[in-house]
Amino acid sequence: MTAQPDPSEVFLAYRPRPGRRTAVLAGAAVLVLGIAGVYVVRATIGSPESTVLAYFAALADRDPAAALRVTAPEVAEPVGQDLISEPVLGAPGYAPPEQVEVTDVRVDGRSAVATVSFTVDGHRQGAALRLRRDDGIADAVRHRWLVVDGFGSMLLREVPERITVNGLPMAAYDPQGPRILPALPGGYQVGVPDDDPLWQPRVVPVRVAPQRATEVDVRLVPRPAVRDEVDRQIVRLLDRCAASAELVPAGCPFGYAVAGSAEEVQWRIVDYPNIGLSPGEELDQAVAVVHTAREGAAMVSGTRRFVGRFEDTVPIPISGMVTISGDTVVFQPGW
After folding, report:
1. Could you tell me which of 302, 174, 285, 204 has the C-alpha nearest to residue 248?
2. Does pLDDT of 199 surpass 90?
3. Which of 31, 93, 131, 227 is the most exposed place for a label (fewest CB within 10 A)?
4. Count of C-beta atoms within a 10 Å radius of residue 134
5. Fold held by 48-152
6. Of 97, 38, 33, the residue nearest 62 (C-alpha)
7. What residue ranges do the domains of the chain occupy?
């Protein structure tokens, strides 16, 4: 019978070297740290809060390109770029939001809403910003959130043909009327250009917040020389009308319409009207609309057959347009 080998001689006890055990433990620790790191990255760099803070940090740096990089492309790409530019944000008139605080974040799958508050020109404002997860394979490694509704807008109301925003000129009207200008949150200076031929230069502050349309009224004041010239032309026109011997003077804003004819008709301007000027919407020239601020009055007298002598007072309304032709102010009656 063949002798069996001693098991102790076949199976040797395994005793790892100290260095190998250290390497195994270190590898496991790296793996754990690596997994944890992915979640840390997702929880910080790839969080809705970090995206919102990055958006406002870009505004603080006056960097519109950086703000657009964390904005959903379907929102950023179709937007007009007049105000979303480095010259506008880099100008001294721009006041970026300050003291930014994210007070609440609610995540629902691939969507989120972040409640944020901030200060613009000393005024505290707030907004609930919607965000969505980015598309593409990169989002699987690092969640990338994008701001959906971080823009606000300026809704132009009483403005001239052209305006300045932070000192930069731009058109205020399109074929549909006064423009709506998308804008990044912050403070702006909107004004009348120094070389506007009709209106006195002036600037008004405008604060833009996300998701809101801020109405812009510059409250235009005519240049004194323009106003004086329009008044002069209207007085000259009314005096010419008053020289007529007709009950209804041709091309005039007043008349005395009665049945039958009259003789010895005389007109006299008792009170000249007071006018107001407001901006027109002509795209190719500077235009002001003339309207009646206070009606004037004209007295008419004469003799009518079977009635005899008469005397009466009629109102004088004024309407029309003012244009600039070269250096000349031209009043065009609207009656």
Report:
1. 302
2. yes
3. 31
4. 18
5. Nuclear Transport Factor 2; Chain: A, (3.10.450)
6. 97
7. 48-152, 153-216, 224-333
